[in-house]
Design goal:
Helix content is 44%, strand content 15%. It is an alpha+beta fold. Strand 5 and strand 6 form a beta hairpin.
Length: 362
């Protein structure tokens, strides 16, 4: 590395850490070196804002204060605590990782980046965060905030969604870590991206990196970072039937290999079109229930946005007058059961189902 680049890198690191000391948010995971608590916070904050994630962080630590507690909890308990955060595969991966940490490592997280990334659900970003924050290893944390800061300051036009990007940005970030303070630097550059060098309307007027920043000098803030790949979104049309017998409702656990795996929901019929009517929904079980029940449409085509899917959900309520001779559908994949209101409240559900259930019973 030539002297000019070295000086710029050192200046960058000094200014970002200095900014961090003056502007950092007081967040609970910054007051611990416990790898379990750091791991918990990092997974929760993936795809989640700090304000939304904080209550979940406290709730998990209160009910499952150690990795042993997390490992011994049931998957339903984990999913129930996770309810509302979305991306439920994260919670299932965490459960598997906790069990492995207990069984293979005696309840102690591996203390190196190389070993951490071997655990399920711990990728380069999370592994680097745990390794640097808990164990002081000089390995860079590269998330969306870091991509944005580095691309703007150093004028990097590599598409951050492309395969070579992570290697390029990680190598650059590695050269920026000051000796002896990897945790401070990693937290500083992420916080700088979250609060100062924001995606929209970065606070360039009061930025300590004005003289070093390529984007500021060239008015290229809106062009950097470059991200060309767009996620293809799939529309799906769900018709939920809340089948009621007294104070009980029919629900089942969603199957594997689909969204909301392991969560509970009402009887579901998925259709190809958005505005399906009862006449369009040809289902033998629902037709059988309509003979002895009353049906009302409660919610019409409520849109629920996921990262790769848009769910358009219509909710119907069937109040059964007579349940004699009615057999609930059951197969090797699906088994519908009547649950009381209290039982439903305790079951893990998607935010969509939980919101409908709450509004329905009020």
């Amino acid at each position: 590395m030539n002297r000019g680049i070295l000086i710029k890198n050192q200046t960058f690191s000094i200014k970002v850490i200095s900014w961090f000391q003056e502007n950092k948010r007081d967040l609970p995971w910054r007051h611990t070196k416990d790898p379990y608590a750091i791991w918990l916070s990092e997974i929760i904050l993936q795809q989640t804002r700090v304000a939304q994630g904080l209550p979940y962080y406290y709730r998990f630590l209160e009910q499952l204060p150690t990795v042993h507690d997390f490992a011994s909890a049931s998957q339903e308990e984990i999913l129930r605590l996770w309810q509302g955060l979305g991306y439920y595969s994260r919670a299932r991966n965490m459960h598997a990782t906790a069990k492995l940490v207990v069984e293979k490592y005696g309840g102690r997280f591996p203390d190196s980046y190389i070993e951490l990334v071997k655990l399920k659900g711990i990728g380069p970003y999370t592994g680097a965060a745990i390794a640097s924050f808990a164990f002081g290893e000089a390995v860079p944390v590269v998330d969306g905030n870091v991509f944005r800061v580095l691309s703007r300051v150093f004028g990097i036009e590599t598409d951050i969604a492309s395969s070579p990007a992570r290697k390029e940005f990680t190598e650059l970030a590695q050269t920026l870590i000051p000796e002896g303070t990897p945790a401070d630097f990693n937290q500083a550059i992420m916080e700088f991206g979250a609060l100062q060098c924001t995606p929209q309307k970065p606070n360039c007027m009061f930025c300590p990196l004005q003289t070093e920043c390529y984007a500021f000098q060239n008015e290229a803030q809106s062009q950097l970072p470059v991200k060309l790949k767009k996620t293809k979104v799939r529309n799906r049309y769900f018709n939920y039937f809340a089948i009621q017998k007294g104070k009980e409702f029919v629900m089942n656990k969603r199957p594997e290999n689909d969204i909301w795996s392991g969560l509970y929901e009402f009887y579901l019929i998925e259709t190809e079109n958005k505005n399906a009517t009862l006449d369009d929904i040809q289902d033998d079980f629902i037709n059988e229930l309509l003979v002895s029940g009353e049906i009302n449409q409660l919610v019409d085509s409520k849109k629920h946005i996921l990262s790769h899917q848009h769910i358009f959900a219509t909710f119907w309520k069937i109040n059964l007058k007579n349940v004699e001779g009615i057999t609930l559908p059951s197969s090797s994949i699906t088994a519908y059961t009547f649950f009381s209101l209290g039982e439903i409240e305790a079951l893990p559900k998607s935010a969509l189902t939980a919101t409908f259930f709450k509004n329905m019973v009020v």
